[in-house]
Write a structure and sequence with these properties.
The complex is a heterodimer of chains A (538) and B (66).
Chain A (H helix, E strand, L loop, with lengths): L23 E8 L3 H12 L4 E4 L13 E3 H9 L3 H7 L5 E6 L2 E7 L11 E3 L2 H17 L4 E4 L3 E7 L4 E6 L5 E10 L6 H5 L4 E2 L4 E11 L1 H4 L5 E6 L8 E7 L3 E7 L6 H5 L1 H12 L5 E12 L1 E3 L3 E2 L2 E3 L5 E2 L7 H21 L6 H27 L4 H16 L45 E2 L2 E2 L8 E6 L6 E4 L2 E8 L5 H7 L6 E5 L5 E5 L4 H11 L4
Parallel strand pairs in A: 1-2, 1-10, 2-7, 4-13, 10-19, 23-25
Antiparallel strand pairs in A: 3-6, 4-5, 8-9, 9-10, 11-17, 12-15, 12-16, 13-14, 14-15, 17-20, 18-19, 21-22, 23-26, 24-25, 26-27
Chain B lengths: L12 H10 L6 H19 L2 H13 L4
Classes of the chains: A alpha+beta (538), B mainly alpha (66).
């Protein structure tokens, strides 16, 4: 049986655009049908913005690649209508073990906060992730939503203009030209778009390689490997480096060997060498098959700005981090979450073009947070000096016997939603409400009497009110704010997260479920002013 | 404001100093460095207060620089 990633899911088909006498203009063209490109396309199509996705490939991710998806992206995917199959298929885990040298030094339970629809994260092969997103694209197409997916379409040249871009696209039947009012580049770490526009990365650069072995264990062997995250610092089977073992669906175990910068790729990728590494790790008698192996090279850096005129960059094309903490695909989906509603308002003419600058500002802030966390993890995992190694080993040695040292152990800080502190879109923060939901934060889920709160938020501006009378709708400059009236006793988690010590609250929520402003009471003029601020019209 | 106490605070200063040296006796440079690092982490956790720790780190850096 072929693997899902060997089957063409969106094979090349001739488009009428290829026979047009003059290049056809599309409102939005997305380059790249990976998780980020599909995410932004689904988001726009759901909002009735016509979108064409082009990709030189015609199938889902080859191999598992990104495998760890955190709560916030799962919430975003819920809004996009494809979160549920991912959570159903994905593996959830709570237990982690940390090893140093030859011994286990401690284990931990994540104790996920209760009262959320989605788990803290799931492990799921990127190919399933993309398959479910493509299924969602097909569903939207069946509903008549304006979304097109063109396989075998490779962008070979891009021309930038004040109010559009021109694209030259190669296909199996020859080249054709397209125009796009807006171009969104989701074409990955080696983004050809970035290269064609002569844009490059800035910031701290460091690099490393990981040998990835997706291993299908023999049933006998599986019994010894529960659904847990195991992380080794400096183990005998990979001296001076780290190893991560993680379970994926279908009994596929991901093994990540950190192998350093100076490597012989060809030699490392030889099956016999990979098998030898795995035997060193699992024992000489271990029986397993290899599903997929690869070397993942990362560089930790970002573009100076994620916007260049009418071209927007999202996901790995804009920023790259180490794999520790699963901040790649997870932050890319937060890019699309931030981008789609802004672009729709700008295209509608209800918000100024400058709103798109705030896409770059907010997501550059998010990328810097990820790069900082990722750099710190890397410094802990791969100490850069003797003193740094001495302290790292001291932390690990102490952690075995003493609780206090465990928070210092850094094998990757798992991706958490970014709070856009200091964003120009943030409005007032009044009313003495819980600090975790200050303006710029993404909404926290909680049970309500009519279902999960996050299922009731998103895609439009909303005014969430607790214990305060508000009108059904408000309107300003063509933007409508809808009321969401809730009671203090929706659930204890809701009261704790949205009220804290306060007795009433009014939250202005953005279409990406982030808090724009908040107050203890309702004041129409204040809400309208905050709405103007949140849409770049302040 | 940091609460770092820089006044004499250890009763039996000579005893303390002798004990501090004794834990390093007969150890290699590498073993001693490891012990020192563990000691710093234990004491830092006991102090806990970030401002005090920052102050101590800065004073450790500047002392001896004339």
């Amino acid at each position: 049986m072929s693997k899902i990633f060997e089957v063409p899911m969106y094979p090349y088909a001739r488009s009428a655009d290829q026979d047009a006498l003059t290049p056809v203009r599309h409102p939005v063209v997305v380059i790249g049908a990976g998780p980020i490109g599909l995410g932004v396309a689904i988001d726009l199509a759901q909002q009735d913005v016509p979108v064409v996705v082009v990709d030189d490939n015609d199938r889902v991710s080859f191999g598992s690649r990104a495998i760890c998806f955190a709560k916030r992206p799962l919430e975003i995917l819920d809004r996009l209508g494809c979160g549920a199959p991912m959570v159903d298929k994905g593996v959830t885990w709570n237990l982690g073990k940390v090893f140093f040298d030859e011994r286990q030094i401690y284990d931990f339970n994540l104790l996920d906060e209760d009262g959320h629809k989605n788990p803290a994260f799931i492990n799921l092969q990127q190919y399933y992730f993309e398959e479910y997103m493509i299924n969602r694209v097909r569903e939207l197409q069946a509903e008549g939503k304006p979304i097109e997916l063109r396989g075998g379409n490779k962008v070979s040249a891009i021309g930038t203009h004040e109010d559009h871009t021109t694209l030259e696209i190669d296909t199996p039947e020859g080249p054709y030209n397209l125009e796009a009012d807006w171009l969104i580049a989701c074409d990955g770490a080696n983004s050809p778009t970035r290269r064609m526009l002569g844009l490059d990365f800035v910031g701290r650069v460091f690099e490393d390689n990981f040998l990835i072995a997706d291993t299908i264990m023999d049933p006998e062997m599986q019994k010894n490997f529960p659904t847990e995250r195991w992380f080794w610092f400096d183990p005998p089977f990979n001296r001076g480096q780290s190893v991560l073992l993680h379970k994926q669906p279908d009994n596929v175990w991901r093994v990540d060997f950190q192998i350093g910068w100076d490597i012989d790729r060809e030699k490392e990728l030889k099956e016999e060498n990979i098998r030898a590494r795995l035997h060193q790790m699992f024992g000489d008698d271990a029986k397993f098959e290899l599903e997929w192996t690869s070397i993942y090279t990362f560089q930790c850096r970002r573009m100076e700005s994620f916007r260049k005129g009418r071209v927007l960059f999202a996901g790995d094309s804009a920023h790259q981090v180490s794999p520790f903490g699963a901040r790649g695909a997870n932050s890319g989906l937060q890019d699309t979450d931030n981008l789609a509603w802004k672009l729709r308002l700008v295209m509608d003419g209800t918000a100024p073009d400058s709103l798109m600058d705030t896409y770059s500002d907010e997501r550059v802030y998010g990328a810097d947070e990820n790069i900082l966390n990722s750099s710190r993890s890397t410094d802990f995992i791969t100490p850069k000096s003797d003193t740094s190694r001495t302290f790292r080993n001291a932390v690990l040695d102490l952690a075995e016997a003493h609780d206090f040292a465990r928070p210092l152990v850094n094998s990757g800080r798992l991706s958490v939603p970014c709070t856009y502190d200091g964003s120009v879109l943030n409005g007032p923060d009044e009313g003495g409400l819980p600090v975790d939901l200050r303006p710029g934060s993404s909404a926290k889920d909680a049970p309500t009497k009519d279902g999960w709160l996050l299922d009731r938020l998103g895609d439009r501006f909303q005014l969430l009110a607790v214990g305060v009378d508000i009108p059904d709708t408000l309107e300003d400059g063509g933007i409508t704010v809808e009321a969401l009236r809730l009671a203090a006793d929706e659930s204890p988690q809701f009261a704790q997260r949205y009220l804290g010590e306060a007795s009433s609250a009014v939250y202005l929520m953005r279409p990406d479920q982030h808090v724009a402003a908040r107050w203890a009471d309702y004041n129409e003029a204040a809400v309208i002013a905050a709405l103007k601020t949140a849409t770049g019209r302040g | 404001m940091s609460d770092l106490n820089t006044k004499a605070n250890i009763a039996g200063a000579d005893d303390f100093y002798a004990e501090l040296l004794s834990i390093h006796e007969g150890r290699s440079k590498e073993q001693s460095d490891a012990i020192n690092a563990r000691l710093i982490l234990l004491l830092a956790n006991h102090i806990g207060d970030r401002a005090t720790l920052s102050d101590a780190m800065q004073k450790a850096v500047t002392a001896g620089q004339g």
